[in-house]
Write a structure and sequence with these properties.
Layout (H helix, E strand, L loop, with lengths): L4 H15 L8 H8 L3 H13 L3 E4 L5 E4 L8 H9 L21 H5 L3 H18 L3 H6 L3 H17 L1
Antiparallel strand pairs: 1-2
Helix pairs in contact: 1-3, 1-4, 2-3
């Protein structure tokens, strides 16, 4: 399975917004500039996070984005689902019942497909692992120097905009 880069962008923006908590909303332009990302594309990802209740959006010249809830209550799975959707990664189409398998006795096709079962089990494990990790967990592993560098950059950029 391959996730879009929007997931990475969304996760990094959530971490950055957590670091900047209490400093007011952060605009898409500032977030995009801090990562050298295209603002229009990033804004679409941020809006998806707003729709999912992960971020709040404040309109206007001094508007922007903030976390909608504490970092301890935002899981990595929340962000993945907001960006990628909640549809299963693997979709069994029962190809075993086509071609040579079309004539198989009903008891064969009445059982769950072994491939579908294995793929579903793996996907559930992946989802559980992402749901068990929060933005706060990611923040806890971040070097303090990265946090301070980010805060300085945003403080400097605020004086230039």
């Amino acid at each position: 399975m391959r996730m879009s880069e929007g997931v990475e962008w969304g996760l990094h923006c959530c971490v950055t917004l957590a670091w900047l908590e209490g400093e007011g909303p952060v605009s898409t332009a500032r977030l995009a500039a801090s990562f050298e990302l295209p603002a229009a594309y990033l804004n679409k990802r941020l809006q998806a996070l707003v729709r999912a209740g992960i971020l709040t959006s404040t309109p206007g010249a001094r508007g922007g984005f903030q976390l909608a809830r504490p970092p301890e209550r935002i899981t990595l799975m929340d962000v993945v689902a907001a960006i990628e959707g909640t549809e299963d990664a693997f979709r069994c189409t029962e190809i075993r019942q086509r071609g040579a398998g079309a004539e198989a006795p009903g008891r064969e096709s009445g059982r769950p497909c072994g491939i579908s079962t294995a793929m579903r089990k793996a996907e559930l494990a992946w989802r559980r692992e992402l749901a068990a990790q929060t933005i706060a967990d990611v923040i806890a592993t971040t070097p303090a120097s990265a946090v301070e560098r980010t805060r300085r950059w945003f403080a400097t950029e605020r004086t230039h905009t």
